[in-house]
Amino acid sequence: MTLLSLQGVGLRYRRGDLARWLLRSVWLDVAPGEVVSVLALRSQGKTTLLRLAAGMVAPDEGRVLLGRADLGGLSDPAHARVLREQLGWAGRLGPGLGLQMLDYVALRLTLGGRSHRRAVRSLALAALERVGVEHCAERHWGELSDWERVLVELAQALAGAPRLLLIDDLLDGLGARETEEVSVLVRTLAEELGLGVLMTVSDPEAALCSHRVLSLAGGRLTVLSDVGAPEPGVVIDFPHGRPPGLRDARRR
Amino acid sequence: MPRKRLVGLSAGEAILGLVIEQPDSASRLGSRLVERFRSAQFTRSTAHNALSRLARQGLVQVVADEDGPDEHRYEATPLGVEHFRAWLRACTAAAPALREELHAKVEFCTAADLPQLIEAICAEERACASMFAAAQGRLSEAELVAPRCATAEQRWSALVRRAVLRDEAALWGTRFKRLERLRARLEELGEVAEEPAMGHNALPRGTTTEAGRHSPSARIPVSASAHALGRHPTHVDDPPR
Fold first, then answer.
1. Could you tell me the pTM of the whole model?
2. What angle in degrees, to the nearest 10, is found between the helix axes of A117-130 and A101-111?
3. Which residues contact A58 (CB under 8 A, 6 or more apart)?
4. What's the confidence (pLDDT) of residue B228?
5. Which of A25, A69, A87, A114 gets the most CB atoms within 10 Å of its CB?
6. What is the pLDDT of residues B1-27, one digit of tens each?
7. DSSP symbol at A100
């Protein structure tokens, strides 16, 4: 089963008279429970690829399917609903507002149509707890360490219980230990919650926990590795303790 | 044939380490060497040669094997152990020689060679991708082993192995990205070489001739086109006439 499917997607870049293909014939599938990493240097179209996957940019050729819905054919309200209900986006920009982190995460839920204040706050707190940064709930973005920001961004993206998680260069420039921890966490979350994850990275080490690694350069996507579809219980090292309910089945 | 580029680890030290870890027969040491240092692409015959060299140097010795009568078992001598500890703890301040065959090929290539060179880089990219995938696979196997370790010693070796495998996989991935970049550079050079007026970019204004502007330039050496990009200012060819 495929969650996200980019089918022959291409996008032209236009600035005045200049027009060139930023992405060309991109074919990419993400299944539930699968982590796919796109390894690329800067200005190769990484963020654009994620924006295409979220339907925020319309492709010049090809189409983008999320589940069975063609994102290009949706009305604005329908697209907004898809964004709210099915997608989580973790980037590096933060809220851009003077919010406490609990409110930042709660905001995501309020946009998702939830309005009961107490329920929203407890869900938001649960999201922060899940990635281990509940101590940041009452702090502001500017007061957080880089490491805490990464985790808060993940919590914010997960709060709405999405089916597809888009992670834009979140691990870029982290230390060895942090890189490993976040990438293992992402994989654990994917396999445990059946989330599809499409993640852009600029460091190959950040891609090591992925089921599939692709390289994006010159507008083309090539396969670097394909470790295979997820099997239950493959992940072994849990940075925040073994998640409850995960089966102890091991590969082989 | 696998090419050895980063001239660093010799089979001798690797074998000596394996013998100290666990005395073994020559053939088993061979397969352990190949298995353990996959990316180094050692062969079994390398192991045999290294073992006889180590024996001549008195670093390993043959002992009778009580289990299998038909094969000799090698173990390290006290001198060998001492030599190995010294090697392990020695300061390796100098960078290993980077004998990058590809760099030499690029240095010597002409515009006419570019397509084949670009094709060769593509092939190497694919090879690096499969090495990356293999290292990633070994890493996920190693990660399954780590939590099952009973003794502190086993756990330690699982952890150091994991650190090595992570670095190795990342190195292959990085090499893949470097090759991709080098190829993009060469493809750009190819485009520069195809521009008819390229030879004149290097000249002051007013020296262009009509004949020069339209002359064929497929055989212009890369050094000239590199100059047009502002690199290698040492050598400029005369504009084609």
1. 0.76
2. 120
3. A72
4. 39
5. A87
6. 344 344 578 889 999 999 999 998 888
7. B
Q: B33: which 2 tokens?
A: 């060497």
Q: Which residue carries 């212009």 as its tokens?
A: B220
What are the DSSP calls for A141-165, one per residue?
GGGS-HHHHHHHHHHHHHTT--SEE
Q: Are B76 and B59 in contact (CB under 8 A)?
A: yes
User: What is the bridge-based pairing of β-strands B73-76 and A220-226?
Assistant: unpaired
Q: Higher-confidence residue: A55 or A117?
A: A55
**In which residue are the tokens 């091991």 written?**
A250
CATH class label, A4-225: alpha beta
Q: Do residues B85 and B78 touch, judged by C-beta distance below 8 A? A: no
Report the residue count for chain B: 241
Burial status of residue B211 (CB atoms within 10 A of its CB: 0-12, 13-18, 19 or more): exposed
- d(Cα A52, Cα A42) in Å, to the nearest integer? 17
Give B-chain residues touching A222 at CB under 8 angstroms.
Answer: 125, 129
Contact A236 B146 (CB under 8 A): yes
In chain A, residues with a C-beta closer than 8 Å to the C-beta of B147 are: 236-237
* Domain locations in chain A as residue ranges: 4-225
> What are the phi and psi torsion angles at A132 (to 5°)?
80, 30
Residue B96, both tokens: 């290993």
Q: Tell me if chain A has a CB within 8 Å of the CB of B133.
A: yes
Contact B162, B143 (CB under 8 A): yes
What span, in angstroms and rounded, lies between the C-alpha atoms of B161 and A251? 20
Half-sphere exposure of A56 (CA within 13 A, CB side): 11
DSSP three-state, residue A23:
strand
A152: confidence class by pLDDT, cuts 50, 70, 90: very high
